């Protein structure tokens, strides 16, 4: 089934409140939609790693590492 | 994926309810929107409902013997349920063995049958004991909806709307972090601190060494300039006495010439000594014997075979003689003697190299080296003589003039210091890797160690960044999960309350919140009819919101409900689901069934089931469609359904 609109709203709000880019919310919604619609097997580790990779690359870190440059 | 579950029918035999078969489908196989099964109390409604729940969930109540037919000798019974799961026909069969007190499940999908309860994986979350209670329910379960000890309404909402998918994504985010990092006990923070300290120490050490080297290089340059200056002073003093100056110049030139010739010949001798045949004639002899011992040269097969083939086909040989048929055959036969493997090229090269090195005499190379060695000894002696001659002249000059002596001594002192500085500078090119950082003077080694430490520290820093992102993402997903659950539940409660108000406008009863169970606001408790109405409204809202299509099976759908509210429930039910199956008694038809049939646009099936002994044969008209078993009668048709007046058999 399609993702419930309230789930989309909750994801977008959580991303926004964390100060993260909207593209991150889009990627999370896309992943959850793929699972709930049955288009993607949630137990497929390869696909999960690919999706996780996208989320990690879109998330902005909130720490800085000093002393290495 | 959207799940569509339809009940096509079931069959019971040898169990506590009368043996019967119910078909919920039209003749073309599509299920009725509404299937009403009228069974007087005591006929086995509860048993049938329990069997349906068991077949839909794969879980049977513990007391198997409670399902045994009374006054019946057989120790076996069976219940089979026919389902349509999306487009797939699935039959669940339960075989009861009352002697052993066991039940065996079998699942048939398409043409294959397997042991056990095994529906398709995508339906398992709906076909669980907890979830089935929400679409196969009775007045008791309606009460359970209001009891937090009995149900977990939130978990059903989570399952239906797959809110848990956010948790699954969060788990995948954690798994990704685990797969990208190698955590061996020490925390990343401590490891990073350690690495940063190492980087700082190596940077400090490199700085020290580079500063020291720069200082030494500057010192060497200064000393070189000082030496040049002193040498100029020395030459200037020497130059004041013309004949001695000339003698010194000549002596220096002779020394330079001798030294140059020594260097040149020494280099030649060193080159020559690398050839074994020059070190000893024994080596030369052995090499020559090796060459002689090698097979006679053969031609590389690949390249030469074609040559012989073409030659044999010519009219004349390369020597000019004619080639007749006999000669052609001989050429082809003998060609084999001259054909070798392709490795022959390498052997030929080896033999040529030996010939070139040894020449005609095995002694020539060793004799030459011997001569060169003798000449080198002579040149070294000549250089030593020139050096002694120059030193003597300088000593004489120093003795004769104190300024010359001072300059010479200064030069010697400066050259000694220069030598010392040169040795110090060599330490900075040290290649010894075994020393600790603080003892190592090799600048290149420290640079490599610093690069390595910076790389490792960078890896830990990347890990820390990744960890930070993992924490951000899991926090977002946790928050989204909680918010999604809250928002969906709030909206379901609001929608359900609108329905409740429409069904019971004067009852002042509303769902306040979902806290495991439904928590009512407005009043302390609710009557059985109110509770059932609330349950209908809640489940209608729940299932309407979801894309999944589940059947709705209810025992006594209108029994406890006031006559005034029954029509509204009747109108509501077809909106709940595409398939409604209800077990009724005659007294709950009033006000409910007509409105239900009308709301379902007439797509309704009516069956009345009773025990054979409960009704006299004359009670059943002869023109109705009936099926009889050993202890049950099933009458199909709306007219008999509406005429039947028996609420209880006992």
Description:
The complex is a heterodimer of chains A (about 70) and B (about 650). Chain A is flat. Chain A contains three helices and no strands. In chain A, about 60% of the residues lie in helices and about 0% in strands. The model of chain A has no long low-confidence stretch (mean pLDDT about 90). By secondary structure, chain A is mostly helical. Among the domains of chain B are: about 5-145 and about 525-645, 3-Layer(aba) Sandwich (Rossmann fold), CATH 3.40.50.300; about 295-360, no CATH class. Chain B contains 19 helices and 17 strands. In chain B, the strands form four sheets. Chain B has a seven-stranded mixed beta sheet, with helices on both faces. Chain B has a six-stranded antiparallel beta sheet with strand order 2-1-4-5-6-7, with helices on one face. In chain B, a hairpin with a 2-residue loop joins strand 6 (about 100-110) and strand 7. The mean pLDDT of chain B is about 85. The interface of A and B includes residues 35, 60 and 61 of A.
Note the topology.
The complex is a heterodimer of chains A (69) and B (650).
Chain A: H1 5-17, H2 22-36, H3 45-58
Helix pairs in contact in A: 1-2, 2-3
Chain B: E1 5-13, E2 20-23, E3 34-38, H1 45-57, E4 76-85, E5 88-97, E6 102-109, E7 112-115, H2 129-132, E8 136-137, H3 139-144, H4 153-161, H5 164-180, H6 188-238, H7 242-273, H8 276-279, H9 281-293, E9 299-300, H10 301-313, H11 325-338, E10 339-340, H12 344-358, H13 364-400, H14 402-427, H15 443-503, E11 510-515, E12 517-521, H16 528-545, E13 552-555, H17 566-576, E14 580-584, H18 593-599, E15 604-611, E16 625-628, E17 632-636, H19 638-643
Parallel strand pairs in B: 3-14, 3-15, 8-13, 9-10, 13-14
Antiparallel strand pairs in B: 1-2, 1-4, 4-5, 5-6, 6-7, 11-12, 15-17, 16-17
Helix pairs in contact in B: 5-15, 6-14, 6-15, 7-13, 9-12, 10-11, 13-14, 15-16, 16-17, 17-18
């Amino acid at each position: 089934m399609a993702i419930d609109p309230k789930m989309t709203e909750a994801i977008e709000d959580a991303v926004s409140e964390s100060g993260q880019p909207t593209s991150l919310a889009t990627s999370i919604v896309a992943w959850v939609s793929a699972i709930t619609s049955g288009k993607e097997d949630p137990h497929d580790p390869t696909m999960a790693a690919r999706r996780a990779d996208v989320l990690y690359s879109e998330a902005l870190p909130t720490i800085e590492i000093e002393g290495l440059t | 994926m959207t799940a569509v579950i339809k009940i096509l029918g079931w069959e019971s035999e040898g169990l506590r309810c009368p043996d019967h078969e119910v078909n919920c489908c039209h003749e073309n196989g599509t299920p009725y929107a509404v299937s009403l099964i009228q069974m007087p109390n005591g006929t086995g409604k509860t048993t049938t409902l329990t069997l349906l729940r068991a077949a839909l969930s794969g879980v049977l109540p513990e007391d198997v013997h409670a399902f045994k037919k009374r006054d019946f000798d057989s120790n076996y019974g069976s219940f089979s349920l026919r389902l349509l799961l999306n487009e797939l026909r699935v039959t669940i069969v339960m075989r009861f063995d009352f002697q052993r007190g066991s039940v065996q499940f079998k699942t048939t999908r398409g043409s294959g049958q397997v042991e056990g309860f095994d529906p398709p994986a995508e339906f398992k979350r709906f076909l669980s004991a907890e979830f089935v209670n929400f679409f196969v329910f009775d007045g008791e379960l309606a009460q359970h909806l209001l009891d937090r000890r009995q149900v977990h309404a939130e978990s059903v909402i989570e399952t239906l709307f797959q809110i848990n998918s956010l948790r699954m994504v969060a788990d995948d985010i954690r798994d990704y972090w685990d797969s990208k990092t190698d955590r061996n006990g020490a925390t990343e923070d401590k490891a990073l601190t350690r690495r940063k300290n190492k980087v700082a120490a190596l940077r400090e050490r490199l700085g020290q060494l580079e500063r020291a080297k720069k200082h030494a290089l500057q010192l060497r340059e200064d000393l070189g300039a000082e030496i040049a200056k002193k040498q100029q002073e020395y030459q200037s003093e020497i130059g004041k006495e013309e004949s001695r100056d000339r003698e010194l110049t000549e002596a220096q030139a002779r020394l330079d010439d001798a030294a140059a010739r020594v260097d040149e010949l020494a280099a030649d001798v060193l080159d020559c000594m690398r050839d074994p045949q020059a070190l000893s004639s024994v080596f030369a002899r052995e090499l020559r014997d090796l060459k002689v011992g090698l097979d006679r040269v053969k031609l590389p097969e690949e390249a030469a075979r074609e040559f012989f083939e073409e030659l044999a086909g010519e009219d004349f040989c390369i020597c000019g003689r004619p080639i007749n048929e006999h000669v052609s055959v001989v050429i082809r036969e003998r060609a084999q003697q001259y054909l070798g493997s392709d490795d022959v090229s390498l052997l030929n090269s080896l033999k040529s190299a030996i010939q070139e090195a040894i020449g005609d005499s095995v002694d020539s190379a060793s004799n030459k080296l011997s001569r060169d060695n003798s000449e080198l000894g002579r040149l070294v002696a000549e250089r030593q003589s020139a050096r002694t001659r120059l030193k003597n002249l300088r000593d004489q000059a120093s003795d004769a003039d104190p300024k010359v002596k001072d300059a010479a001594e200064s030069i010697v002192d400066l050259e000694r210091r220069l030598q010392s500085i040169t040795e110090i500078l060599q330490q900075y090119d040290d290649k010894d890797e075994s020393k600790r950082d603080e003892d190592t003077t090799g600048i290149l080694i420290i640079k490599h160690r610093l690069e390595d430490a910076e790389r490792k520290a960078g890896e830990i820093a990347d890990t820390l960044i990744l960890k930070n992102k993992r924490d951000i993402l899991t926090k977002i997903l946790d928050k989204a999960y909680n918010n999604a659950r809250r928002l969906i539940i709030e909206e379901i409660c609001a929608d359900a309350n609108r329905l409740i108000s429409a069904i019971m406008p004067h009852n002042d009863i509303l769902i306040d919140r979902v806290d495991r169970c439904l928590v009512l606001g407005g009043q302390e408790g609710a009557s059985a009819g109110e509770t059932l109405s609330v349950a209908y409204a809640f489940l209608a809202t729940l299932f309407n919101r979801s894309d999944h299509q589940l059947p709705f099976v209810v025992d006594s759908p209108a029994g406890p409900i006031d006559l005034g509210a029954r029509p509204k429930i009747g109108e509501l039910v077809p909106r709940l689901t595409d398939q409604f199956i209800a077990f009724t008694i005659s007294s709950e038809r009033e006000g409910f069934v007509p409105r239900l049939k009308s709301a379902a646009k007439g797509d309704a099936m009516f069956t009345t089931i009773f025990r054979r002994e409960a009704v006299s044969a004359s009670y059943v008209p002869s023109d109705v469609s009936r099926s009889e078993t050993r202890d049950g009668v099933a009458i199909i048709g709306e007219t008999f359904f509406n005429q039947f007046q028996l609420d209880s058999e006992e």
